[in-house]
Amino acid sequence: MTSRGTKYWSSGAIPLIAPELLGDIIASAADISLVISQEGRVLSVLVNQAHRSFGKLDHWEGLDLRDFLTTDSQPKLEKMLEIFAGGGESDKAVELNHTDRENWDFPVRYSFHRIGPDESVLLMLGRDLRPIAEMQVQLIEAQMALERDYETQREYDTRYRVLLEAAREAFAFVSVNSGRVIDANSAAAALIGVAREDVIGTIFSQEFEGRRRGEFMQSLSAAAQAESVRPLELNLRRAEQRVLVTPTAFRAAGEQLLLCRIDTAEAAESVADELTSGLTALFREGVDAIVFADRDGIILTANDAFLGLADASDLSSVKGKSLADYLVRGSVDLRVLVENATRTGQMRMFATKLAGDYGAHVSVEISATYLGDNTPPVLAFVIRDASRMEVVRKPGVAVSDDAVRSVMELVGTASLKDIVAETTDVVEKMCIETAVELTRNNRVAAAEMLGLSRQSLYVKLRKYGLLSRDGADS
């Protein structure tokens, strides 16, 4: 820079700039620059190369700027043009929204400057407002999301309060780390013997006789993590009453909590006695056969309904035998029932036939439940006589309307023999897939279930492309 240029900068004047450089300087100083006449006609458009998102705006030149403004922005431009046409000045920035009426629109903040020998031309230096507008939209969306979350939280909190107070059982929420009561319902406070406000925040172990905080919280945590639900038998210090505390562990907002249900020992014993007596009566007098067996299928006990189905004289004649001895398909059916019940916890409505001591066969439906909490685990089988249903059921297999239409569509395109062969193959494949699935891909068991030889089953598996399944063959 020359000494003259330095003098101009220090005195506040602008140094002389070559005309070929002025356009680049203006384009770099603003995101978008417009040179317009005082009537609003676009004379030149300069776009900053760093803002290619504007696209090419050369087609604006020679046209009225109002044609590229939204309806609400046109009056703003008119006002600024009137000010400059009257000889006035304005250093106020104006926000204008550009649009092509169809595909795009973007907001720009412009400052207006007189240029030219007679200052009859206006230079508009614009700053792209889209980043700010996008940020404002994100802030609004975030605010709305927070408000929705707040309302949802209030709704859940109200539901929680109503449910907690409406529950007849006594519940208390206890922090594992501090051992203090976080919350409790009125039933729990009444059982402990204090007001609800007084029990919240207290150390839970102090409400019971002979309990220290560390040992007590370890006992509650161990009971909550045990596989079988076993309540702790405790004595309330204030009420001098024996209670049973059943803890349930969970985590909320990173904190470990225990939901402790508090029952009086008398009430728990009464409920247990009623449940035991009811289940005993159902086992003894129920119309469905009930059998309890170990994991090998050895019968531990059975009710009179099962003895009737099996034509057995008394319980001693079936106790100790395998349930497979009373199934027509023997160990195949028993293996399917035991494996599926043990794996998933239960198996429903398994259709088979029961064989009595004197050779009579009865169609039955068996449901199996695995009772893993027992020591040792046992299997409970509910066996329902289905022979009466076979009498009232119409012979044949029910066919859906879609299946009928699919078969009818083949008429005229194939011979009757081909149509029957095709539908037979579909049914045969479905039966084989079902048997393989029930036996967990045990090919030997599946063959016995279908009444096929092992070789015949392999032929059909190969025919229908089912040999790729993984599994044991024994």
Automatic annotation (TrEMBL):
Q: Which residues form the PAS domain?
A: 156-201
Pfam families with a match to the protein in the record: HTH_8 (PF02954), PAS (PF00989), PAS_9 (PF13426)
Cross-referenced CDD domains: PAS
Query: Which PROSITE patterns does the record match to this protein?
Result: PAS
Q: What is this protein called?
A: Transcriptional regulator PpsR
